[in-house]
Structure to design on (281 residues):
DNA sequence: TGCCAGGCCTTCC
DNA sequence: GGAAGGCATGGC
């Protein structure tokens, strides 16, 4: 049997993969196809079960559980946050089962550097192009897939090379970040062990990483659920719901989110974001 | 054609 | 330390 079955509670695969936190999953037939670590994954959900296929079946259940945070008791989290207020309650009602992922740190850093002042289709295109050119190729069920490259694999890639992948003015930011990693100016392994405040500071030191990008990296690849990334959508929805539709400084929005949402701010942000985007797009 | 896209950097005050 | 302006590129 070339497929495993995993029981899930309070999990929605579609919401989780389509809410905009990841850029490389494709919906083909009734499967989502993507890459986790060093393997290709084909995954679909039917009710309370996930069905997963891969070119590498070793330890597949653990790999999938780690990536989708399946061992976390999300039902109690949702039960807790619906009590915050009626707006959050409404958002949860529409997006229940949406989880933040545990994505690769390096890939997430580069992907979110590319995300600045960009749109999701073009971000995906650029990340896929970089993978195709510099990442390892894997064949599965007659198709070719590419892993996101390691820093080492990008060692000799030039600013111009990145530019030709469609990343625009962010070419030099990616180049600089990769160079700092390969020259051991920064250590990705150590960074991930840091407390959130120190880690955030380290990330902000990277070219092309500002407050929003840093918070996305923290939330989508480091499990820091207390951070609250504020992009234009979150800004809009927060102003609409909590600031009487008035233009409000991000600093003020952040203060409100921290005090009002507390340790669950990041999770609530995802539900508010996806809920409003689904309605407006 | 002009504006926008899940911001950030640089310059200037 | 806060406010403007510029920025690659594709889609509408």
């Amino acid at each position: 049997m070339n497929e495993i079955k995993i029981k899930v509670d309070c999990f929605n695969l579609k919401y989780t993969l389509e809410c905009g936190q990841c850029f490389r999953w494709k919906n083909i037939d009734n499967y989502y196809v993507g890459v986790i670590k060093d393997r290709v994954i084909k995954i679909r959900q039917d009710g309370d079960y996930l069905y997963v296929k891969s070119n590498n079946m070793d330890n597949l259940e653990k790999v999938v559980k780690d990536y989708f945070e399946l061992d976390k008791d999300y039902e109690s989290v949702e039960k807790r946050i619906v009590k915050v207020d009626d707006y959050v309650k409404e958002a949860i009602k529409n997006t229940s089962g949406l989880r933040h992922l545990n994505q690769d740190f390096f890939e997430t850093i580069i992907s979110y550097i590319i995300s600045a002042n960009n749109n999701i289709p073009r971000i995906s295109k650029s990340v896929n192009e970089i993978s195709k050119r510099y990442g390892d190729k894997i064949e599965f069920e007659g198709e070719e897939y590419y892993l996101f490259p390691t820093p080492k694999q990008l060692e000799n890639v030039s600013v111009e090379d990145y530019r030709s992948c469609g990343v625009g003015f962010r070419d030099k930011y990616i180049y600089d970040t990769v160079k700092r990693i390969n020259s051991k100016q920064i250590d990705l392994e150590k960074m991930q062990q840091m407390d959130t405040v120190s880690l955030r500071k380290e990330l902000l030191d990277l070219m092309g990483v500002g407050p929003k990008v840093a918070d996305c990296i923290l939330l989508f690849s480091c499990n820091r659920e207390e951070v609250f990334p504020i992009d234009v959508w979150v800004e809009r929805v927060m102003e609409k719901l909590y600031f009487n539709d008035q233009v409000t400084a991000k600093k003020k929005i952040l203060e409100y989110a921290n005090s009002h949402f507390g340790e669950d701010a990041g999770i609530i942000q995802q539900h508010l974001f996806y809920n409003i985007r689904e309605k407006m797009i």
Q: What stands out?
A: Residues 178 and 237 of chain A are 35 Å apart (CA to CA). The beta strands of chain A are 4-7, 26-28, 31-36, 39-46, 49-54, 137-140, 143-146. The first strand of chain A starts at residue 4 and ends at 7.
